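User: Hey, quick favor. My workstation is busy. Could you predict this chain's structure for me?
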Amino acid sequence: QVQLVESGGGLVQVGDSLRLSCAASGRSFSSYAMGWFRQAPGKEREVVAKISGGARVKYYADSVKGRFTISRDNAENTVSLQMNSLKPEDTAVYYCAAYRQGYLDNTPDHWGQGTQVTVSS
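Assistant: No problem, here it is.
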């Protein structure tokens, strides 16, 4: 069983940067693909970024490409999301997710509790 705990959310201004972190407990962290999702009020949860177990393959939603960077440290069991040039439309609750079946799996098996990111104009 994997437990995920996010941190790093907060209130920032347009154009600011923020770094989200997710700490994972449990075994075999490196075998899990990891992802970051977000859900804005009144909208469906959407995938923002995804990274394979060995960090060789990464995916970004078009809306964040070039601004967000996902990374992981398998020795520390952490995955991070560096968010630059933040926009008001990035405001959402951000969730860390783990895919037990790997990068090609589309359905996460484990979720964090979420962390709020608010971008003020």
